[in-house]
Amino acid sequence: LACSHHLCAFPVNRNELCVWNTATAQPLYLSGHHYSISALSFGSKINPLLVCSASHERVIVWNLDECTQKVQEGFTPRGIVIGTLLGMVLHIRFSPDDQQVAVCAGNQIYMLSAKNEAILAELDGHLAPVTAAEFCTWEKSMLISVSEDRTFKARQLYLSLYLIFFFLNLKVWDYSTSQLIYQSGIITAFPLLSLLIDEENKQIITGCAEGQLWIFSLISDHNYRCIAHIDLKKEKEKFCNKVWKSGKEIGEGQNNSKLCKTDNMRPEGSVETSLPVLLIEHCDFFVCFHNEENTYSSLNTSYFWIGTSTGLLIINLANFELEAFLSYRDYSDLSIRIARLCALTRKAANQKVLCLITSMFEDMIAVLEVNLAALMRTQHSDFLPCKNEKSLSVIASSYFFPFLTNHYFRVIGHKCVLSHKEASRVKSTVKDKPLVFHNKIKSSGYTVAPRMTMFSPNTKLKKKEVSKWKSSCKCKNKEYPLESYPPIKYEKEISVTCKPTPIFCIQYSGDGKLLACGLADKTVLIFNSNLTDVHNVFSGHDGAVNSVAWSHDKKWLVSASEDRTLRVWSVCNKEPALILGKENFHKNVRFAQFYFIDTFILLCCGAEFHLLSFHPDTTKDDLKRYKQRSVCKLVQKFPMTSTMEITSLSAVNEFYSYIVLTAGSNRALEVFDLNAGCSTAVIPEAHVRSVHQICQNKGSSFSTQQPEAYNLFMTTAAGDGIKLWDLRTLR
After folding, report:
1. End-to-end CA distance of the chain
2. 103 lies in which domain range?
3. pLDDT digits (tens, 9 = 90+) for 636-648
4. The domain spanning residue 117 has which CATH number?
5. pTM of the model
6. Which residue among 196, 413, 447, 704 is buried most deeply as judged by most CB within 10 Å?
7. Residue 206 and residue 132: Cα distance in Å, rounded?
8. 8 A C-beta contact, residue 367 and residue 354
């Protein structure tokens, strides 16, 4: 199969070539082969547009403009025979200038002239049929090929073992001299089927019969090293679980629960199918969204299509994650459930891409018109901004100042990507209506449960207070100068104790004047920001201090320890104002911090985090001087889904926010909305290893001129690296 622009090429009656124009619905039949056509390819240029067909006995190049003219004149079109009796041809590819054709026949690659019958070079070295070959556009005379080399020698044991693990070869050729430049092994037990060269990033992308992708660098200094390995089956499960939890439908007639079932939820008696990579092709992603107000990621990001036997996938080359998935079996109008071959157009026309598939078990070919924009909007309707519905926002919907309201929106839409039909889903809502004749008394909505408001910020401020607070915020906030370089040299170094003692946690106060340190010797030290003097020393914990956090007004400090206790300290007093003992917690207390502008305290205990309301009181009663007068009460416990322990927690205390971010030992990220009192999103397997740090931009929401673009990102750190996330899309 082959596709180019609005043309589709496929064999008819085994040995006859049909070139179908989808714009005019006119077929062009070309005859010249006596045996079954086994490979097809369109040329790289448009004028003239060439197509090459290959069979067991000959390879023919057709000029489609000349062939069309011959048919209109009533003559039989003829092509140029450029090769004969080369064997079973599995793959052919034109050079970038359409002057040569690489023919993969058996274990060899023949370089043929596209103008006459001439063999320019013969490239051998593979031990099994060559399945794909591609020309490198920026390196002259370079050809890259993949094969399914499965033979091995059993004469010596170490040689047999070597071939077992490295029998799938990727070779780099200089076809002008027929010289082998590089040969690399890929650790897999399945043959390589497809190949793509990413010109923008100078990378090779290859896929095997078991749904595995490998990406290699073609940069000269990288020595063809492997950059990434992608398991399509796992990526598909992650994507489907995310869509399934969002409750959205994918495509017309698709059953979301049916599509997004993983192996653990597969119905009894069903058969697990692999995902052989039949095709890898560039995705003309941003051309399809040039009219959209919002795009999905940076314009520098590359995307590519993956054609498998069960559907089409779109992979983001920036984060190697699945962006969209289209399954053949979930469309009632499509009779092909499992594809044997697949072809896609590289360039999108009218925001649509042509896809050509053939059935695995029947003599049947289907031409699909995929609307990429509709597919992405449908499957990402939970995450894309629009002007119809609110989505997750770090900043609370009710601000400290009522005139600074800010909402983010998302699309609600539904389109069929295989036809021109469009359907829209409209959420029916029941407005509040008077229960009696008095207009001030309203019902709860009858069909909708009343919204629970756990807490609300104070928005009833006078104009004088608003202007005074706003001006004070501008004076206190000191932004990092954008024109300055990041600090790379330390200014000062001090020893906090006489003997070596680990420092488990540090945190600056909001104004940057004080620095708190939690030590393994059970103490908390307060330094001046220039580290010239110890401001205070807090002692009383019976274990190492694992977390410290400042209050918004810089008057209080909360500390948690390995002794399963929590203490709140006044900066002006060495004795704790509040102590929560071991009886309150069943495991160690971690990640304690103030929350909602010092209204609450958040802390982690095992696989759950606690929300505590408190009122510190440092006054003493002469008769009951040892009795604690501060009050603390548990509001609610929030367990994290399917994890043994919370490894990191982040929440904003500098302004009103309902959002709490957690990371678990199961490598997942979870977002909680405390105003709704529940979890709102789960990102499974956010990292390869457990996340040990979540960072948010916790600056004041009034320190910039565009608060709507502020505090929308978080950074997670784990053993496998650092990732930047967009909190509007959770990607």
Report:
1. 35
2. 1-186
3. 999 998 899 999 9
4. 2.130.10.10
5. 0.51
6. 196
7. 9
8. yes
